[in-house]
Amino acid sequence: MKLILLIATAGALLAGCAGFGQVEPWEKGNLAKPSMRFDADPLDARFTQHVYTSKEAASGGAAVGGGGCGCN
Amino acid sequence: MAATERIGGVFAATLLLPGLAAVSTVHAEEPPDQAEIALKYGYYRDWQPGLDRVKVQSPQLYLLTPFAGQWSLEAATVSDSVSGATPRMHTTRSGATPAMSDHRSATDVKVTRYFHRGSITLGGGYSGENDYVSHSQNVEGRWSTEDNNRTWIAGYGHSGDVIDNTGSGGSVENQHRQTRELMVGVTQAATANDVVQAFFTRSMGRGYFSDPYKDFDQRPDSRRASITLLRWNHHLEKYDATVRSSWRYYQDSFGIRSHTLAAEWVQPVGVWTITPGLRYYMQSAASFYYDPVTDAQGVPSSLLTRRYASNLEGYYSPDQRLSAFGAVTASIKVAYAFSEASSVDLKVEQYRQSSGLRFGGGSPYLDPFRASFVQFGVSHKF
Predict the structure, then answer these.
(1) CB atoms within 10 A of CB B67
(2) What is the CATH number of the domain that holds B41?
(3) Which ranges constitute the DSSP H helices of B23-158?
(4) Number of domains comprising chain B
(5) Less Cβ around it within 10 Å: N or C end of chain A?
(6) Cβ-Cβ contacts under 8 Å, B134 against chain A
(7) What pLDDT score does B84 carry?
(8) Domain that residue A32 falls in
(9) Which chain A residues are closer than 8 Å to B321 by Cβ?
C-alpha cells in the first residue's frame, strides 16, 4: 500500500510539472521510432523472460495470463 | 526418468508462460499496417563449478497480421529440446539428477478488435510436455485519451496447470494449480523524447507449488504476489539513440522480495543497430528456504543436511531459486536491416547468479551459477 501511495504521489507530482504529458502531434516523431516501443521484439522478450522465470523466484509484471511455473 | 521430467519441468515452466507473451504491453490503438513474420533460434546453457547443468535449443515462430479491417491476429509457437542435469538440493553436485533429454512445445494466439480509442484483446495459450500441461486465457483492454498521449490498460488472466509424472515412475499424480492475475497500467507520452509506463499486477495462485524433483521440498498450496513495474524510454536526439530502462518490485506470500533493474542503449549506425544492455536482479529468501548444514569444519555436508531436512515440519525447500541471491546479466544485440521490411539480428547474453551479488549478502554455502544465452533471428514485414 505504501508503494502504491508513493507511485501515485510521484505520478501526481510529475503530472503537475509544466509540459509533462503535453506532447503535440507534430512533436511525436521521436516517440514513433521503433526503439521507443516497449515491445519492440516480442520473441526476444519471450525467450529471456522464460529463462529468468526458470532461474529466479520473481516473474511477471508486464502482462497477465501466464501459465503456472513448475520450476518454483 | 525423474531427471528427465525434472529438467523438463524446469524449462517447461519457462515456456509455461505463453500467456505472458500473449498479451504484449504497448500497441497503437489501431491495426498494424503490415503483416509480420519472424523466426528466432534460441540457445541456452547454464553451469556451476564442476557441473554442466541444462542446455536448451529453442526455435520460435511469430506471426502478426491485420484482417477484416479492424482486427489483428498474433500467434507464437516454440519447440524446446532440453538436456542436462540439475541438483536435487541446493547446489550439491553429488545429488544432481542423471543426464537427461526432453522435448516440449507451446503455442499462444491472441485476437484484437480495435475501436476508435481503444482495443480489446482475447488470448489463449497451451503448453505441454510429458509431466506438465498448462492452459491459459487472458483478456486485455486499452483506452487512449483524445490527444493519444495516455493509454490506460487493464488485463485479467487465468491459467490452469496439471502436474503428473507417474507416466515415468514419479510419485506426483494429477496435481493442479490455478492462477489468476489482475493488472492495471498506464502508458504516458511524457515529453517529445520520453515515454513512461507503470503497471501494477496482483497474482493469486492455489494448488501444487512444490518441486517434485527436489528432495525434502514441501511448499504452501497458495502463492499471492504483487508486482510493480515502471519503464522509461528516453530518446537522445544528440546521438539518435534510445535509452530503455525499467525497475520492477516483486513481493509474494512466500516471503520473497525482489528488485530488478534493467537498462539498454539502442544505437543506430546506418543500417545497423547496436544495443548493449545490463540487468541487475536481487531477491530475499523464501521464509521456508533452509540453508545447507555444515560439519565441524564449517564445510557444507550433504549427509548432515539430509538428516536435518528429514526432521523438518511444515513448509521447507532446498531450492537455490528460493534462496537469497543477486544476479547480473550483460547483453549485446546487433541488428542489420536489409530494407525497411527485413532484418536479421543476433543477441548474446551472459548471466551470473551468486549470493555475493546481493546487497546485504545472500544465502550461504551455494555455488555461483552462470548461464549463457544466444538468439539469432530474422523478421520480415509484408
Answers:
(1) 11
(2) 2.40.160.50
(3) none
(4) 1
(5) N
(6) 67-68
(7) 85
(8) 28-57
(9) 55-57, 71-72
